[in-house]
Amino acid sequence: MVQEKLNLILLTGRTIDQGVGKESGKSTKLYFDSTTMCYMDETDMNKLGLRNNDHIMATTEEGSVVLRAIKHPRGAMPGMIYIPYGPWANAICSSKTTSIGMPSFKGTPVEVKPAPNQPVLTLEELLKKEFGR
Amino acid sequence: MSKIDAVTCPVCGCLCDDIELTIADGVVAQVKNGCAMCEAKFFSHNNDHRLKTPLIRKDGKLVPSTYDKAIRKSAEILAKANYPILYGWSSTDCEAQRVGVELAEEVGGVLDNTAVVCHGPSILSVQEVGIPTCTLGQIRHRADLLIYWGCNPWSAHPRHLERYTAFTEGRFKGSEWKSYINKVKAAAGRKKLRSLERIGVLKHKPEQVAPTVSDNKPPAILNKKGRKLIVVDVRKSMTAEMADYFLQVKPGKDYELIQAMRALVRDQELDVEEVAGVPVEYLQQLVDAMISCQFGIIFFGMGLTQSPSKFRNIDVAISLIRDLNMRTKFAIMPMRGHFNVTGANTVFTWQSGYPYAVDFSLGYPRYNPGETTVVDVLLRQESDAGLVIASDPASNFPRKAVEHLVKKPLIVIDPHMNATSLVGDVVLPSEIVGIEKEGTAYRMDHVPLPLKKVVDPPKGLLSDEEILRRILKEVRKIKSKKLEAA
Predict the structure, then answer these.
(1) C-alpha distance from A117 to closest chain B C-alpha (Å)
(2) What is the DSSP pairing of strand B27-32 with strand B366-367?
């Protein structure tokens, strides 16, 4: 049966496309495409009835963001979603530094649900929405 | 058309210094030996996203201005501020970083570099327990057991394997490139067999070979001769795909896994079946391989520093190395991200005594991570101005921290338009260090390397160092005028 939402663990990190994107320019299509996606395990995607490139809404206590779900290409990673570093990942990352200066970029609980009718915001739209600039 | 060889690549902490460039009509036309990120960076000096004139925000919009006006405005913001933050520094040269420390002291601000959201916890651990480490050259020539823990060099340091570890031809240890190619070929053959079986051409059923997490046993390859590559991660990254053995740990459980390994290294018995999702039997085989190697190394990345327990993960990882050194020779090294983040830590330490999170507000340097770290200052909403250089916190800080950064006057110095430049109040374009300006950078193993100037910068652009010097001069002028007036 298809579930409405899943509670998973949020991981953020590097991918080679995100790396090439950030060096080519943060306003390039490559950077946008590589940082507005998230890897999910196939079993989790099936639970939500998702196919590759379907939009999802990821929500943590910090906020929500719409991303594209992509099946993790190698091995299993049930219970986790992996978003490449970028403004979209940081819209929902935990800012808790546990008194050592480092925010919690990995290991935050996240709620994921399908968002078929919601668009992925562009960098300008995201900055406008979050910071009014 | 001209060729320049032995160019140092200004992208990641590997600082590969064997890049060959072809320059045609004053622009980089070809990049040889570099990885995908290296190529993108060298070609980026000529792209549309380049900033070419200073910008100042007027009525909510960034409008073109001149360096004189933008520098004057920046100096006014900094001279007026009580507690400004000066953040970034990791993608520029040591020469600019040196001026940055002087400026931070002059304006009494908080000086921090990108290590705070990267290997800051590693620095804290090193200060607590020390670090048995070495240079990458030693690893290249001698290491026979290579462990990547919570890092994915295939994505973040693409030539690390090829230049310094498993796939390099060292003086005493050979490259494992051929055995990797054989493995890839064998996997392709097995895939072909499976598809033949599926369509019914093959009558004899081949052995089941598709690996899953549960049957990811330490293979016999841990006993093979030559270099062994092991990857520990929460998901199967591309680097894990290349490894001789991939150990999948449950998210946030690295601490207990390392503690269990420490117990096994000390010949203690564990009375549990599995730790952090890994059966103890496999762990024992891994520890045996570690003890029986001649020279092992653990490289660790954000998987340890950013997951829960943060710097305590590094504490135990370094302690594990200490235990292993009772039995064999082992070292550990953080995989530094930006090409000169190690330089930023080094320069800040020369000048102030502390590697990051240095607070000059009392007139002398003070260091208290958790209080003087820039993310905490922003979350407590204490800063009243910001200068960001050679980094992009609007992309890489959590939203709440950026909210306060944007609320206060923000000066941005960067060669390219990025998220931080888009939300800045004064934006100063600069020359790209390592392409349009020469300088010095520190590799991840603390070896300083020279960066070359290979093309001329766009006309009229200033370097980070020059911009900072002019801001500093202007700040001093404003302050002395205030003193005179008083």
Answers:
(1) 24
(2) unpaired
Cβ contacts (< 8 Å) between A39 and chain B: which residues?
Answer: 235
CB-based contact A100 B370, cutoff 8 Å: yes
Nearest CB to A102; choose among B44, B306, B418:
B306
Question: What is the H or E stretch that residue B87 is in?
Answer: strand B85-88
Say whether A130 and B374 touch across the interface (CB within 8 A): no
Does residue B466 sit in helix, strand or coil?
helix
- What's B50-118+339-485's CATH class? alpha beta
Residue range B63-79: mean pLDDT, rounded: 97
pLDDT tens-digit readout, B393-404: 999 999 999 999
* Pick from A14, A124, A133: CB nearest B406: A133
Of B36, B116, B392, the CB nearest to A102: B116
pLDDT number for residue B206: 56
Residue of B nearest to A122 (CA): B419
Least confident window among A28-32, A108-112, B7-11, B242-246:
B242-246
Give the CATH number of domain B129-334; options: 3.40.1180.10, 3.30.200.20, 3.40.50.300, 3.40.228.10.
3.40.228.10
Which distant-in-sequence residues (6+ apart) come within 8 Å of B102 by Cβ? B351, B472
Q: Which chain A residues are within 8 Å of B154, Cβ to Cβ? A: 16
pLDDT band at B217 (very low <50, low <70, confident <90, very high): low
* Chain-chain contact of A103 with B401 (C-beta, under 8 angstroms): yes
What is the Cα–Cα distance from B340 to B441, expressed in whole angstroms? 5
Residue in A with minimal Cα distance to B394: A87
pLDDT of amino acid B481:
95
Q: How big is the CA angle at B265 (ends B261 and B271), to the nearest 5 degrees?
A: 60
DSSP for residue B176: -
**Domain definitions of chain B by residue range:** 50-118+339-485, 129-334
- Percent helix, strand and coil across chain B, each to the nearest 5: 40, 20, 40
pLDDT in tens, A39-52: 999 999 999 999 99
Q: What is the ipTM of this complex?
A: 0.96
In chain A, the residue whose alpha carbon lies closest to the alpha carbon of B235 is A77
- B306 and A130 within 8 Å at the Cβ level: the answer is no
Tell me which chain A residues have a C-beta less than 8 angstroms from the C-beta of B423: 127, 131, 133
Residue pLDDT, tens place only, B263-309: 999 999 999 999 999 999 989 999 999 999 999 999 999 999 999 99
Residues of A in contact with B369 (CB under 8 A): 100-101
Tokens read off for A57: 């809404």
Rounded distance, CA B405 to CA B383, Å?
8
Strand extents, DSSP E, chain A: 6-13, 37-40, 55-60, 63-71, 80-84, 106-114
pTM given for the model? 0.95
**Which domains, and CATH codes, for chain A?**
6-131 (2.40.40.20)
Flag whether pLDDT at A54 surpasses 60: yes
pLDDT at B59: 94
- pLDDT for residue B202 is more than 90: no
Average pLDDT, integer, range B243-263: 94
pLDDT value for B200 = 79
Residue A69 has pLDDT above 80, yes or no: yes
**Chain A CA closest to residue B114:** A102
Two structure tokens written together for B132:
């048995």
Nearest Cβ partner for B40 among A24, A74, A76: A24
